[in-house]
Q: What sequence folds into this?
């Protein structure tokens, strides 16, 4: 059974200043999404599902449907405040969805096989898709053995500002915890993060999560259960967010899932800030020139 790729593409970046998931960064007008799908196809994925904001749905489909027609099966779901499980009562003042955990949950009805989850605006690299695909080929639909592709921290920093990263704790190759670190930057010959106004050193080789997960459909049941609890506990908090790592950490602590750590040595890059675009274009150009990607992905 070929796995499915679930791309979280509903965000509209405030720091970036536009809809970055459709921005052109390749020599033939490709976006980061194009490269992710290209890598997924050659790693053995059979379908891609996009989670979209209704505001960009038409423009998004107008771009990607012609490109992907005949290349891979596609499906689309919308992440809206109204997209909640039956019986869930939400605060009427809530105006935006609940983050990455909710984004995965809205795809429940269109995925029936093992699936990987990625962000639309992150360039993960060929090796990452090979790692997760190989792992998922061994899983079945009821498996609670999940996977996560991690990256060396030094391979994930931006030249144009600080970043937040989930630092992974492991034991015998399994993820045990993801600890969020914020305001991470290069400072001279070291990397530091800030917490409560104080700077701390952090190991350049620390493995961090870039939201690249591999799950079976069982995860949807676990996700819905946690989402119901989350909504009940945050009925009066209209800004509360429901994130994948929080759910994963909870499953690990309850011994309801295990997460195999798959570490990629690829250089991750993305477009967190507007100025990241120029760097990303240069890096993609170098990968094309070295033969990792063709000059035109879909020709």
A:
């Amino acid at each position: 059974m070929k796995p499915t790729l679930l791309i979280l593409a509903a965000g509209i970046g405030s720091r970036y200043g536009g809809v970055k998931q459709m921005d052109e960064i390749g020599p033939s007008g490709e976006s980061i999404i194009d490269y992710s799908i290209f890598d997924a196809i050659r790693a053995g994925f059979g379908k891609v599902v996009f989670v979209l904001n209704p505001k960009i749905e038409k423009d998004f489909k107008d771009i990607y449907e012609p490109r992907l027609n005949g290349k891979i099966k596609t499906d689309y779901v919308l992440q809206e405040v109204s997209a909640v499980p039956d019986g869930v009562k939400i605060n009427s003042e809530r105006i935006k969805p609940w983050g990455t955990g909710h984004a995965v949950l809205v795809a429940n009805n269109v995925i029936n096989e093992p699936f990987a989850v990625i962000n639309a605006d992150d360039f993960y690299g060929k090796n990452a898709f090979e790692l997760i695909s190989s792992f998922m080929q061994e899983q079945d639909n009821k498996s609670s053995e999940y996977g996560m592709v991690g990256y060396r921290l030094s391979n994930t920093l931006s030249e144009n500002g600080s970043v937040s990263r989930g630092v992974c704790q492991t034991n015998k190759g399994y993820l045990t915890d993801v600890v969020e670190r914020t305001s991470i930057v290069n400072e001279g010959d070291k990397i530091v993060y800030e917490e409560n106004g104080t700077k701390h050193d952090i190991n350049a080789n620390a493995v961090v999560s870039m939201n690249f997960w591999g799950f079976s459909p069982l995860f949807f049941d676990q996700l819905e259960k946690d989402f119901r609890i989350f909504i009940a506990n945050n009925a009066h908090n209209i800004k509360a967010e429901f994130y994948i790592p929080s759910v994963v950490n909870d499953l690990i602590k309850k011994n309801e899932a295990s997460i195999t750590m798959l570490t990629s040595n690829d250089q991750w890059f993305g477009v967190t800030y507007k100025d990241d675009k120029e760097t990303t274009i240069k890096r993609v150009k170098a990968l094309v020139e070295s033969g990792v990607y063709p000059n035109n992905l879909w020709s």
